[in-house]
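quick one before i forget lol
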Amino acid sequence: MSTPAILVRGGTVVNADREFSADVLCVGGKVAAVGATAAEQAPAGTFTLDAGGRYVMPGGIDPHTHMQLPFMGTVAADDFFSGTAAGLSGGTTSIIDFVIPDPKQPLLDAFRTWRGWAERSAADYGFHVAVTWWSEGVHADMGRLVKEEGVNSFKHFMAYKNAIMCDDETLVNSFRRALELGAMPTVHAENGELVYLLQQEVVKMGITGPEGHPLSRPPMVEGEAANRAIAIADVLGVPIYIVHVSCIESAEAIARARARGQRVYGEVLAGHLVIDDSVYRHPDFATAAAYVMSPPFRPRAQGHQEMLWRGLQSGQLHTTATDHCVFCAPQKAAGRASFTQIPNGCGGIEDRMAVLWDAGVNTGRLTPSEFVAVTSANCAKIFNIYPRKGCIVEGADADLVLWDAQATRTISVKAQKSKGDFNIFEGRQVRGVATHTLSRGALVYADGDLRATAGHGQYVKRPAFGPSFAAVARRAAELAPSAVQR
C-alpha cells in the first residue's frame, strides 16, 4: 500500500548541523522537498500537518536494543512489534538490535532466526551480530553477513563468564576480520573474570539482594575492559565502538584514546545519565530488582553522571541508547535468593528522547542540534546509514518527529506502551515531548494516538565501510613489521 503524501508546515527543522524554518514534503516514504517550495511541489491529495510552534527533527535511532531476547533462562517481554511501537510513541523510528547466537551456533543461522522475529517490527531495524567464539565457520559467516546481509557491526561481550563472554583470542581474531571486511567491532566492556569472582565474594559476605549487583561490578571492572579493548583495537588499527559507557573510568579511557587520534566511539544510556545506584537499596525487592542491568547505575557522589554529560558535550561520547531489554517482576523474581540470578535488563525506548531533552536541552547541556546528533545523526554516521537516516534532507527516509518543547508529561508505567510492568523513570516529569511521529512518511503516532502496525518496519542494510577502513588497514599493515622488531 502506498503512503499518502504529507506536508509538514510551519515548523523549525533541526538537523545536527543547524536549525531553520522550513516546510517538509514527504512523498513515497522519502523526504521530497525541504524549504519554501515544498508546498508548491505537493501533489494533489497531500495531507497537511501543522507543525507551528514545534521542532521537526529526524526520528530517533536507538543503536542498542534487545527485543524478545532469550537470556538467563527467560525471554524479554517486549517483542519486535511491542518494543518498536513503544519507541515510535516517543519519537524513535529505527533500532539496531542484537543477534546473539547460542553457544557454537553458526552466526548465519542465528541471524535468520532474528530476522524472522523482526518481521513484525513496527519501525525500521538493523542488527549487530555477536561473536562469542571463534572458528573458520565464524570467519566465513562474518564475511557473508557483511557482503550479503548488510551487517556492518559485530558485538563482543567481555562479560557473562560461562555464557557469552569472549576471550582475548576471540577478540583479536574477530577484530582483525572486521577490519578486513570494513565492519565496526562493538564491545560490552566489563571484565567477566573479575565480575564472576566478585559475585562469589559478595554472596559469601551474605549480601544476596539487588544491592549486591553494583558491588560485584564496580567502575574499575568496566574501565579495565574498556582500556583492554581499546588497546587491542589500537594495535590492530581497527575503529571500535564501546556500548553503554557508564562510568568515569571508561569515559576517560575513550577520551585518552581519541586524544591520541584513535578512532573510538562511545555510547551512553539515558538511564545512566540520570539514575544512580541508590535504586538498588530500595527496601522492596521487586523495585530494586527492576533496575538490575549491566553495567549497573553508578554512585552520584563520585561524579559518574556528570562525566557522561561532559562526554556528550565535548564530543568524546557520541550516541545515546537504552539497552531496552524488558523483564517483568515474575521474571526478575528468579533472582530472589541471589542477585546473580536476576535477569539483567531495563526498558526505556519510549522515554529516551524526552529524558534527554529534559535533562540535556532544558538544562543547557545540549543545544537542539546537539540533541539531534546524539539521538540520531551520530548513530547513522557511525553505522553508515547517513543521510538516509539521521537527517532531514531531500532523498532521506521520511522519519520525522514533531517536538513540542513546552509540553510536559509525567512518565509512568501506567501510560507506557511497552509490555514491561515497571518504568525506570517512573514519576519523572519531563518538558519536551514528541507529538507526532512519521516512519518512512507514514503517520504512526499523533497526539497520543499510536497507529503502529506490525510489519511496517523494514530491514535496513548497512553497507560496509569503504576507503577510510582501507586506509586504516594499510596503515596497520605498514606498522606491523616495526612493531614486531621492537
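fyi The mean pLDDT is 95.
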